[in-house]
Amino acid sequence: MSALTADIPQRRRGADFLMRYAFFILVAVVFVAFAILRPTFVTPGNIHGMLMSASIAGLMFLGLTWLIAAGEIDVSFMSVAALANMVTAALVQDGQGWALASLGGLGAGVAFGLVNASLVAGLRLPALVITIATGALAASIAAAIGLGTSIALNNTGFVGQVLGLRVGVLPLIAVIVAGLYAVSWFVQERLTFGHYIYAMEQNRAAVVEAGVPVNRMLFMLFVLSGVVSSLAGVLLAANLSSGQPYLGTSYFLDGLTAVLLGGMALKLGKPNVLGTLAATIFLIGLLNGAALLGWTDSQRQIVRGSLLLVGVGLVVFARSRRKT
Amino acid sequence: MISNRLFIRLLAFAALVAVIAAIFWSQNPAFLSGGNIRALMRHMSVQGLAALGLTFVIVVRHFDLSFPGVASMGAMTLGWLIASGAPFPAAIAGALAVGLVFGLVNGIAVARFGLPDIVTTIATGGLAVGFSYFYSNGTSISQNFFMSGILDLNDKRIIGLDMPFAILMAAAGVAAVVLHASRVGAGMYATGQNRVSARFAGIATRRLIVLAFALCGTMACLAITLLVASSGAANVTAGGQLLMPAFAAVYLGAALFGRPSVGATLAGTLMMSTMLNGFTLLAIPYYYSDAIVSTVLIAAIAIFDPRLSGLLNFRKAAA
């Protein structure tokens, strides 16, 4: 690899560097601009709130990152989170303890992870359509639990206390999620397991020929996606102190944008956990800063969509240049 | 041999629909009344048009996740044009043009520039939703609707059929000719089977992929035009309800009939609409009916998967 990169002319290597890190520069520029235009953007309270949201969203998008990196897709993740959120809220409202309720929420996530895994990895059915269907199923069960409306909770139990804990100035949950991402980075970039994930996207048949149990890996990835999504759903139940059956819709575009935009930074189109984390923080910051600046939802939506489109275009352009 | 198999599949499909209809009829005899069947056909028209457009994209082995967003923008464009006093043919042309433009953008991005289809269409769909807020800041538009004549699109009848259903039938007829009785359609199937060999066989694969996306966008906007005409207002969230039923109809049809085609999509739409209409009639809340429909979709894809049905045939041969 190093022998190859050494042959690349200096100028192109510079362009390559810019492609990889342009997104981080953009994030820095945008955040500094928000801070200058609206000083409230950088008050401790606001940063704390943003870190909380980014941690929960980051948790939800972790499994999705690896699935997309492996060349599969899961569009049921946000509905699974909504289902876990509603199951937890319903159990708490029913008088159960938070421990049992959280387990119930996680159980729902594991169940949907297993369903996706057996249908896509086990039976080799098309991932996009299957997860559209399982996502709709999870969303409708979530709505059915609350009979179409949300469930308000009067206590947030130990989950709420954990969310309230701080390590120094940082919320504990942000530290935990950051640790989780560090471990995931190590697994994806330094262990063979992670290399197989990248390899599966390139040439599935070759990886199978190499003797890698591809189906078992895919199975694990889908279950993992269900678990982290439902974990985020349980945390949201405490964070919002309610069960929201429709919270999935707001995470759908954000999740795919975070993973794909993050993949375009750093690895030129290969989803990776660091990219996802940076993009998640960026999207949360954009939401927050845009609200402070008084932008409408639609303007933010257009910024987000354009970024995704420009990002994917740049990556394809860069890759085609490199081949020739 | 092949026509024999098709006959069996048709028979199985008819039996399935008959069973579903019989179940609903036993619960509520009004299910088979003329009024309800007309309501069913109206429902089928909107879903069917969106699904027909998607069929083209699925045939060339691509995905389009942008059409719900594009349809929302089409709906708002239509509403805004009518509210600002444009004659309604011009308003409809405006809505269809939105679909055409977004479809062309998707198609050119995917076919000419080689961008990945799922990411690209998610992004353009997101953009379209964003643009749809521009007309009215997100509030629904219904000014001038009574005067403009757009409601006729829903209420008029033509040769004994309700207008929406007549439009669906006409669109399906054209789509069937394009897909099953022309070189364009044969080229699309070939492109879907194997892009490289299709190109070497002299098929303009890129142009066909662009055409497929353009048709998908345009027909999604036609579908939403009918929906706006029936509800009497244009909404920014109007398109959202198209995604799941359209994919379900195309895949259900493809599962039933072995491959995506105009007939298969219509059959899939008929089945979906029959179920959704029946649930509405029995006053079952939407969240239960959604759950049942998605379960049916998962089951249909799993059961009709070629390897599983191959397994069944093998057992039959062994027995």
Structure description:
The complex is a heterodimer of chains A (324) and B (319). Chain A has 14 helices and 4 strands. With 324 residues, chain A is mainly alpha-helical. Chain A has one domain. Chain A has a two-stranded antiparallel sheet with strand order 1-4. In chain A, a hairpin with a 2-residue loop joins β2 and β3. Chain B is mostly helical. Chain B is built from 15 helices and 2 strands. Chain B has helices spanning 2-27, 34-59, 67-83, 88-112, 117-132, 145-148, 152-155, 163-180, 183-193, 195-200, 205-231, 243-257, 262-281, 286-303, 306-318; strands spanning 157-158, 161-162. A two-stranded antiparallel ribbon of chain B has the order 1-2. In chain B, a hairpin with a 2-residue loop joins β1 (157-158) and β2. Chain B is globular. Chains A and B meet through α6, α12 and α14 of A and α5, α12 and α14 of B.
Distance between the termini of chain A: 18 Å
Task: Tell me which oligomeric state these chains represent.
Answer: heterodimer
Q: How can the largest sheet of chain B be summarized?
A: 2 strands, antiparallel
The value of Rg of chain A in angstroms is 20 Å
Shape of chain A: globular
Strand order of the largest sheet of chain B: 1-2
- Report the uncertain regions of chain A: 1-6
Mean pLDDT of chain A: 85
What's the number of domains of chain B?
Answer: 1
Give me the count of strands of chain A. Answer: 4
How many helical elements of chain B?
15
Quickly list its features.
heterodimer, A: 324 residues, mainly alpha, two-stranded antiparallel sheet, two-stranded antiparallel ribbon, 14 helices, globular, B: 319 residues, ABC transporter involved in vitamin B12 uptake, BtuC, disordered C terminus
